[in-house]
Predict the 3D structure of the following.
Amino acid sequence: MDNQAHGAQRVVRKERGLDSFKRSVRRGMRKSKGDHTLSAVLRGVLLAAAVTVLGVALFALILNWWNASDRAITAINQVVKFVSILAGVTSAMRGGERGSVLRGASVGVLYMALGIVCYCLLIGQSPRLTAYLADLGMGLAAGGLFGMILTARKAA
């Protein structure tokens, strides 16, 4: 009987060892999420840039047939930016992850910074941060808001 009790303890120890292994694997996965977050943010920024390129190309085709005012062009450009940020934040999000507001805000700010740098390269000027603070703020606010909304939607 004593051998049976001793054998039962070994089984418990093995199960405890397996549980310990599972916990350490989960802990390692949580620690490596920083690298995953960076790649997810970069993936979101690149997708947002691609959506912008497609949106601007489509808008340029539409402008061939439609004589739009400057106000309409500005409004449609803002809509293209918002849709691009939404697509980028959606791409950077994963279900149930924490820090989605920060991730969304990061996608928005980096997307807008990339757009500012590309615009300055196209027109041949050096970027003046003060002139583009409103765009950076819009990217920060829109990205954070979209991250918050998507997190709340996935939680529900």
